[in-house]
Specification:
There is one protein chain. The chain is built from 16 helices and eleven strands. The strands form two sheets. The protein has a six-stranded parallel sheet. It has a five-stranded mixed sheet with strand order 9-8-7-10-11, sandwiched between helices. A hairpin with a 5-residue loop joins strand 8 and strand 9. The longest helix has 18 residues. The protein starts with about 35 loop residues before the first strand and ends in a 6-residue tail after the last helix. About 5% of the residues have low confidence.
Length: about 400
């Protein structure tokens, strides 16, 4: 009887087999942001998980592992700190590309599958109540080459952390370097999968059908799509008289029928000095607008229960929600979808029209909002018909 092969040697630092150890590529990065990773216990034994990389690559990174963190002293301290933000999508989440904090924050990151992350939120109401940050990755996950992601926009934990820290600390190049060990891990894993002829790896070579980057709500429900665009009375972030932004111009168009909605809303707060210049509406036009309650009544009457709202970036919808409008309809960020299909940052609506080689459309309403809603409709039409490359 043949004896069993000796166990593989394992690196004592990264706990990976020595043949695929990534420690040589690790150069710990110091951060102003405190990073706390909360890992679902089932994710601990995933051999190609990226939390080990993050823990070793970020000086001061903290890892806690559990489902219910109610008695965890570190998590309780984070929740009580008043400066913690959860990296998790949501209608009120702040896009990290526009986030601007006066002092360093604590970044709380959930590690696990999408289902596991939702279980962590359900089991920990304090986490679910934290203000949220969201990211808009513009390229497919590198990790997706060795572990299937649940959707085209999903990325590995370490990729999400690098993306967020790059914007929060205004040094994207430094945190791009932070991903070097992951790139090395993926490269070595692919080498064993594709080139090393061992039965242990042969089953991993699977031909997969390319994912459709267009959400089903857009692909299959074009008749229910309503493009929306809002313009705001917004003050500069550091202005001493700054008040929160408020919606003053709101536009919508039903893609299938061309039905349109427009409302100019009287500002409820002092008008920022640059507002009229930016949104290209005169002060007299704003002053002659309708009340907020009148706008709400008309817009709710315009929408149908089955409608799907499509917007560009997070600002318009987030401002509307902050104003007190409760979003009950499903909604999609066309900028994120466009970035996926173009495999590059989509930029503004006007820039995206150029990337997609679409002509600038005729504005059907006044001001910057009129131009932007027309451009958004053109981009969304293009996305609805976007073909998936084999």
């Amino acid at each position: 009887m043949e004896s069993a092969p000796p166990p593989r040697q394992v690196c004592e630092r990264c706990f990976r087999p020595c043949s695929v150890c990534f420690c040589a590529d690790l150069k710990p990065v110091a951060t102003k942001t405190r990073v706390v990773i909360l890992q679902h216990p089932r994710e601990r034994d995933v051999g190609i998980g990226t939390v080990r990389l993050a823990r070793l690559g970020l000086a001061g990174c903290e890892l806690r592992r559990d489902v219910d963190f109610g008695d965890d002293p570190i998590v309780r301290e984070v929740l009580a700190s008043g400066n913690a933000y959860l990296l998790f999508p949501g209608p009120d989440a702040i896009d990290v590309e526009t986030a601007d904090f006066a002092s360093p924050i604590t970044l709380v990151v959930l590690d696990g599958t999408w289902t596991q992350a939702q279980k962590l939120l359900k089991a920990n109401p304090g986490l679910a109540a934290l203000p949220r940050l969201r990211l808009s990755p513009v390229a497919p996950s590198l990790y997706g080459q060795i572990r299937r992601e649940p959707a085209a926009h999903c990325v590995a934990t370490i990729e999400a952390i690098a993306h967020v820290l790059g914007y929060l600390e205004k040094d994207r190049e430094r945190f791009a370097e932070f991903l070097r060990p992951m790139a090395a891990m993926v490269e070595r894993q692919l080498h064993y999968v594709t080139e090393v002829a061992s039965n242990r790896h042969r089953h991993s070579i699977i031909k997969r059908t390319p994912r459709d980057p267009i959400p089903a709500e857009l692909r299959q429900r074009r008749a229910d799509v309503v493009c929306v665009q809002g313009e705001a009375n917004a003050w500069p972030r550091l202005h001493p008289d700054r008040s929160p932004p408020e919606t003053v111009h709101w536009l919508a168009r039903r893609l299938a029928t061309g039905e349109s909605f427009e409302s100019v809303i009287v500002p409820r707060r002092p008008l920022a000095p640059s507002t009229c210049h930016h949104i290209q509406l005169a002060p007299e036009t704003l002053a002659a607008g309708e009340s907020w309650n009148s706008f709400l009544t008309r817009f709710r009457a315009f929408l149908r229960p089955i409608d799907v709202l499509v917007h560009w970036g997070h600002f318009s919808l987030a401002t509307l929600v902050a104003d007190g409008y409760g979003i009950e309809h499903p909604h999609l960020d066309a900028r994120l979808i466009a970035s996926k299909v173009l495999a590059r940052r989509a930029g503004t609506v006007e820039e995206c029209l150029t990337h997609m080689e679409l002509p600038a459309p005729q504005a059907w309403a006044a001001g910057r909002g009129g131009m932007r809603i027309a451009g958004l409709c053109e981009v969304v039409e293009k996305l609805c018909a976007w073909s998936v490359k084999p």
